[in-house]
Amino acid sequence: MIQELQAGATNLAYKAMLELRADIGPESVFVGHVDAVMRPQGYRLAGFFVKDDVYAVAVAGFRVFDMLAWGHALYCDDLGTRLEHRRQGFAGQLMDWLIEEAKRLHCDQLHLDSGVGPDRTDAHRLYFNKRMRISSFHFSRPV
After folding, report:
1. Quick one: fold of 2-129?
2. How far is residue 42 from each of residues 38, 77, 99, 125, measured CA to CA in Å?
3. Which residue of 56, 77, 124, 142 shows the fewest CB atoms closer than 10 Å?
4. Which residues lie below 8 Å from residue 105, measured CB to CB, with a gap of 6+?
5. What angle do CA 87, 91, 96 make, to 5 degrees?
6. Considering the entire predicted model, what is its pTM?
């Protein structure tokens, strides 16, 4: 079952997010940062839940915004599944939920960035299966 996590339930995304973003710190730091800093900027969380597990087995962190380049777009910041729950279709169902949410909000596009190492093959297969395409290079640098 997929449900959006409101402030007060952010902690339920922690285990899946920690596997995706190992440097997020302890649960209390993650929750505080998401609720105090990211949510006011439009960040939202959706989780996939299974029976007998309080924490989400997969999570998606996303936001909706407007850009000249993309128009009204939904951007998926984070999409991850806990190791013991991978290869069961949970991330794919979250992607379908994001697509439907983008349609519901009248977005023009859905975007996400993904790393390029050999460990990302399964993730890239999922994105291609959801009819996503590689549309640009993403450049970054520390400042």
Report:
1. Aminopeptidase (3.40.630)
2. 7, 12, 17, 28
3. 142
4. 64, 72, 74
5. 130
6. 0.92
Q: Which among 41, 42, 31 is positioned nearest to 8, based on CA atoms?
A: 31
Question: Residue for token digits 């806990």?
Answer: 82
User: Which strands sit side by side in the sheet containing 58-67, from one edge to the other?
Assistant: 2-5, 44-48, 58-67, 71-81, 109-112
List the chain domain ranges: 2-129
pLDDT: which is higher, 41 or 119: 41
In angstroms, the CA 143 to CA 133 distance is 29
123 vs 77: CA distance, rounded Å: 14
Residue 84, pLDDT score: 94
Helix (H) or strand (E) holding 67: strand 58-67
Classify residue 36 by its DSSP letter. Answer: I
